[in-house]
Amino acid sequence: MPITLYDAFVPTCLQQLGAVSGLLDKAEAHCAANGWEPEKVIQAKLAPDMFDFAYQVKSCYTHSALAVEGAKAGTFSPNMADAPTTFEGLKALIAEAVTAMNAVTVDEMEALIGKDAQFAFRDFRIPFTAENFLLSFSLPNFQFHATTTYALLRHLGIEVGKRDYLGAMRMKTDQ
Question: Domain 14-166, what architecture?
Answer without folding.
Answer: Up-down Bundle (1.20)
